[in-house]
Amino acid sequence: LARGTAEPDLRGRHVVVSAGGTREPLDPVRFLGNRSSGKQGYALARTAAARGARVTLLAANAGLPDPAGVDVVHVGTAVQLREAVLKAAADADAVVMAAAVADFRPAVYATGKIKKKDGHEPDPVALVRNPDILAEISADRARPGQVVVGFAAETDDVLANGRAKLARKGCDLLVVNEVGERKTFGSEQNEAVVLGADGSETPVPYGPKEALADTVWDLVLRRLG
Ligand code: CTP
Ligand code: CA
């Protein structure tokens, strides 16, 4: 599907996309975060809207302008993102988890700024696990036939890691990026393989994030039937 000539093949569908990266506060001025730019998730939201879908974009700290014609819900933490995903997914045909969700959050939130103490080393930061949103919505679909898509950035044995993750999460599609220079974080371009729970493997050549987004929607549409 060429850009700029999008057919409204997602008309009548509601799709939910999460984008960006969650931030887990330590105190009022500090957080644990990650490098996700949000660009791939925003590209997914824009392309779905261009193809006629009703789009809910759950934006975690992306710092990007709200795309036109998209319902945007801004969230901060993984726990907030989970609430927003569960709410938006209730009537969604597809949910795409492009956000980088922090695996852990500080066990304790200090309501006042953490200060240095003379002559004392800092306390270690205790962490607890965040909920696994993708696994949860995959295991407990809000609607029959809802298509659930995850993203994974992997190194080393990228495809084997991706296959194992797809099975563990229970989603229908997993977009696997190889992490490397130039690729993925903050870049305008991306290269990926989309793995299907049906055993399919769709390579997407290095190119704009919109092209990968359109391939994801093509694969989602095929599964929606
Ligand atoms: N994800 C999620 N909730 C989490 C962690 C991840 O919904 N707590 C989603 C991400 O949005 C992404 C997919 O799961 O779509 C894969 O994320 P990834 O970090 O690769 O998976 P993990 O299971 O956390 O594996 P790893 O230990 O490799 O980080
Ligand atoms: Ca993770």
UniProtKB/TrEMBL annotation:
Keywords: Decarboxylase, Flavoprotein, FMN, Ligase, Lyase, Magnesium, Metal-binding, Multifunctional enzyme. Binds 1 FMN per subunit. One of its GO terms (molecular function) is phosphopantothenoylcysteine decarboxylase activity. Its EC number is 4.1.1.36, 6.3.2.5. Pathway: Cofactor biosynthesis; coenzyme A biosynthesis; CoA from (R)-pantothenate: step 3/5; Cofactor biosynthesis; coenzyme A biosynthesis; CoA from (R)-pantothenate: step 2/5. It catalyses: N-[(R)-4-phosphopantothenoyl]-L-cysteine + H(+) = (R)-4'-phosphopantetheine + CO2; (R)-4'-phosphopantothenate + L-cysteine + CTP = N-[(R)-4-phosphopantothenoyl]-L-cysteine + CMP + diphosphate + H(+). It comes from the Bacteria. CTP binds at residues 103, 113, 131-134, 151, 165, 169. Residues 10-221 form the DNA/pantothenate metabolism flavoprotein C-terminal domain. Coiled coil: none annotated. Residues 15-225 are annotated as: Phosphopantothenate--cysteine ligase. Its cofactor is Mg(2+); FMN. Catalyzes two sequential steps in the biosynthesis of coenzyme A. In the first step cysteine is conjugated to 4'-phosphopantothenate to form 4-phosphopantothenoylcysteine. In the second step the latter compound is decarboxylated to form 4'-phosphopantotheine. In the N-terminal section; belongs to the HFCD (homo-oligomeric flavin containing Cys decarboxylase) superfamily. This is Coenzyme A biosynthesis bifunctional protein CoaBC. It comes from Streptomyces pyxinicus. The chain holds residues 177 to 401 of 401 of the full protein.
